[in-house]
Amino acid sequence: MSKETSAARPGQRVTNGGGAAAGGPGKICQFKLVLLGESAVGKSSLVLRFVKGQFHEYQESTIGAAFLTQTVCLEDTTVKFEIWDTAGQERYHSLAPMYYRGAQAAIVVYDITNQDTFGRAKTWVKELQRQASPNIVIALAGNKADLANKRMVEYEEANTYAEENSLLFMETSAKTAMNVNDIFLAIAQKLPKNESGAGGSGNTGNINVGSSRTQESSSGCCK
Amino acid sequence: MIGLSNDTLGYASLGASTFLASAHPSESCGSNGLPLTPNSVRILGRSQLLYTVSHPHLCSYVSIQRGKHERLIVVQEFYKCDLLAAWNNHQEFQTEKRLIQVMHEVMQGLVYLNKLGISCCCNLCPRNLLIDPYGKAKMNGYGLYYMTEQGTAVSFPIGNEFSAPEVLIAGACPELRPAGGGGNPSSDVWSLALMFLSLILPTQTKSGHKEPLEISVATVLLMASKSDHDDLASAIIDQKPQLLEKFEMLSAATQDLLRSCLKFDPTSRPSPIDLLSHPAFAGLTLTAPVDPQPRPFPRCTIASPRKAFPPMDEMLSNYPLPDDCMTLNHDGVKTGIGGLRERSMREVYHLWQLAGGQAEQELVRHGFIISRPPILVKSSSEDTEARKLPLVIREKDVEYQFHRIILFHRLLRAYPYYRSRIVADAHMDIPPYHRGEVWAALLGVDGDTISTYAEIDKVTPTSTDRQIEVDIPRCHQYDELLSSPRAHQKFTRLLKAWVVSHPGLVYWQGLDSLTAPFLYLNFNNEALAYACLTAFIKKYLHKFFLRDNSAVIQEYLAKFCHLVAFHDPLLFSHLASIGFVPELYAIPWFLTMYTHVFPLSQIFHVWDTLLLHPASLALCVAAAILRHLRHQLLDFSFNDCILLFSDMPDINIEQVVKDSVDLHLETPVSLLYRHHAPPSSDRDTEQHLSGPLNDLSSITLAEQRSEICGRISGADVVRLSEALPGSLLVVDTRPQHLFQTGSLMNAWNAPGELWMREGDSPSEDGGPQLVLEQAKLRAVGKMAVVVMGTKAAHHLTLQVCEQLVEAGVARVCLLHGGVDVFQASGHLVVPSPGAS
């Protein structure tokens, strides 16, 4: 991990030009991405596959949230993802806004072998459309595609839903790595790479657990 | 670690046996898409129950471990003499009376096993029937069929020439095995009767030697397939009429017993419990209760002294005793039992392992072993040198552990009366061998835990089930015991029990991790694990599992910030400046009390200390972790910091724990005050007194979160300045004229306006820069820097605190309620002219 990176708090700036990788005049963009979805659908596993190329069958549950970064290259642009992987249990819902607020991208994950998780994914999409930054790029990931023989959510059903809501959509498998890099790359492609587009909703300053959006101005305990 | 049976080693040896579990075809998956649990792990989970077996006619299980490549190694109580040897060497074992007695003893063992839920042993034979020095029968190897799930987890058939026809058939054709059933108790009855028959109707060889009657598997199956006779005894006698005379010499009751036990049809054969009252056993009494006894946790209530061993001259003649019992003392008398042989088998084995013993290695060397623990324990008093060694070394020191185990063994027997002694000795360290029960004692677990747990509904489906179900297979699964299906069942029951018994509280992810250490340490005593979990949450995570716990957690995190600002203002300011707030990393630390952060081996050491302290120690553990990573954190950006904690780096946990205790001692009690702290109990040192000097309850959550440093109570200020005069720097920020009407003894008057003047060069009374420099000098070596002003000018006092913290002054705190609290209490004195 390089030390020059700037804070990954909500509302990332896009760093233009300066600090670009040697070998080209390419830009470096940083984007905040959040993963949402029901428990045990494979959010952490997708991130782990994307960032470290690993997969653990018994990936431990996430409490609160976890943070990882990964950089991808697109033609002349280097895109650095700052990924917040959130807890799936419904009770942790109150923490979610502080992670998706100011995020430029979100991956909403469900498990193709479990219809309920698809319903939960739709709820997340609705919440993002209502509460997150208006320009947020949302991708829908139908994970555990390797368990096709236990499929409960049809590809067509999810695809139609994604088209109606202008979401990127792929079925993925963290276990076999199918479509994992692809979905992150597709998001990177779709994200605006200019200063005006990628700034998000501006720096919101402190992150307050459980506080509503209106309380953003009141400082946290550690200001 | 685990253990219910505590049988004394006595004259026993320890014997090891080994077998391979059958391997799954590679890449096979279960119905949930996850790889199948290895059979050896399934066996490990099931076999835990065998540790609870404690019966005079059953050899205790001492250790069941996994080796490499699906190997299991079983260590069990062992004697060098089996039934056949006794029959060959001792005339009396050839008599009907004696053999009936053996049968009665084995029958008691079988009833005990049946009641424990082990319905069939399947491998009874003279080789597995050991005879102890006093001639008592002891079954060996009876758990194999049970732990291997009726033999389905191994690729070899379980059984022998004494097995009942239905067992022989199932062994040859696995598809005929009873599905799901644990085997038939009456199969063992057959084996026992067949053994009896072969010994009571021996054949004479040409040399005049007696040999047990041989009845081959083929004969048994052939006779069973014909329908001339209902039972094997009649069929054999029909085939060999010369046996009839001998058979009819047996008593009528014995004849009836053999006939009914050797019925070909298993459904018409009696079960062991039916047979205990058979007339053939008339006049024989039970050696011990046949009902498995739960071991209650506060044990002292029914502490019965161990029975002494009978004198050695009551032993069978020429019995092959272990070598160390045969040595002669000064008077030329055999020494018999002494030293380690007084201790329980499990303890001895544990110590033998600490001394470097490895069952697997022994097996490699001999093919089989009859081991004698090679531990030499000096009878010297406790080794004080050992106490100074690091914890991890002490835990591996044979001699040190020997003394610790004995000490805690005695103290635990006297629990709860000796709770204070247990607490005192646990401050040194807790021997891993007794950790489960020591923790229970520290948590004050008392009462009838078994009935309490038994009465809880752990079965009815609830809305939390799905969450529990997806969390358990991800919880501490690197540990083989916790990854076994049996552990998953126990996890589920414990969590469901907790949820259903705490109607005001709910299941938050993380509760599973919190349960893991208790389950691991009390694998065979779910009730105790449950009692510990409940007591732990009540004390350390009060209100954390409320449906809406945000106020509780926010207050907790605010206190954590105050603690960091108090002890390490530089680090605090850096972390605050990069926005690295504890909301982003510390919630799993606190909500799971570090069980989601560290592996079990480290959790044990954190909790060994945590359980000796009030709940607020957990905050100090977090502060100590930051202190250990301080140099990195000071250097790091936000991303680096958060990545550092995403995967907790390796840290010296013993040192972190020590530091947390120091930090706790160095923090005024009131600084750690929380609204949502558990109500104090008499046993705790945390005090919540009332009165304006003590009462901090008027602080709001918003204040806790917005103020840079914590508040100290007036009572704490008085207490500290009386106990350690000069240990505090009291900064009185009121204007000079108010200061002169009265302030605390030795207070330093630094009026608020001095701190606030901006921009201009230092005037004669000094500017902000000058007063800060003075403050830094005066604060050196102080236990706390107490900033106080009038209650009305609270904002001013707060600003002074902020300046001090930002300037890197450590141990700054704010007096709650302002100088006003001292006005009525009479602590104010008029400063002598010229002070400050």
From TrEMBL, chain A:
Keyword Lipoprotein part of the UniProt annotation: yes
Membrane-spanning intervals of the chain: none
Top enzyme category: hydrolase
Compartment list: Early endosome
Alphabetically ordered keywords of this record: Endosome, GTP-binding, Hydrolase, Lipoprotein, Nucleotide-binding, Prenylation, Protein transport, Transport
Listed GO MF terms: G protein activity; GTP binding
InterPro entries: P-loop_NTPase, Small_GTP-bd, Small_GTPase
EC number(s) stated in the UniProt entry for this protein: 3.6.5.2
GO terms under biological process: protein transport
This protein's name: small monomeric GTPase
Disordered: annotated span: 1-21, 195-223
Catalysed transformations (reactions): GTP + H2O = GDP + phosphate + H(+)
SUPFAM superfamilies with a match to the protein in the record: P-loop containing nucleoside triphosphate hydrolases
Organism listed in the record: Hyalella azteca
PROSITE patterns membership: RAB (PS51419), RAS (PS51421), RHO (PS51420)
GO CC term, one of those recorded: early endosome
Homology family: Belongs to the small GTPase superfamily. Rab family.
Residue stretches of biased makeup (Polar residues): 204-223
Top-level taxon: Eukaryota
TrEMBL record, chain B:
Domain Protein kinase residue range list: 1-281
Entry keywords, A to Z: GTPase activation
Residue stretches making up the Rhodanese domain: 724-831
InterPro entries in alphabetical order: Kinase-like_dom_sf, Prot_kinase_dom, Rab-GAP-TBC_dom, Rab-GAP_TBC_sf, Rhodanese-like_dom, Rhodanese-like_dom_sf
Lineage: Eukaryota, Metazoa, Ecdysozoa, Arthropoda, Crustacea
One GO MF term attached to the UniProt entry: protein kinase activity
Pfam family, one: RabGAP-TBC
Signal sequence, start to end: none
Protein name: TBC domain-containing protein kinase-like protein
Gene from which this protein is expressed: LOC108664602
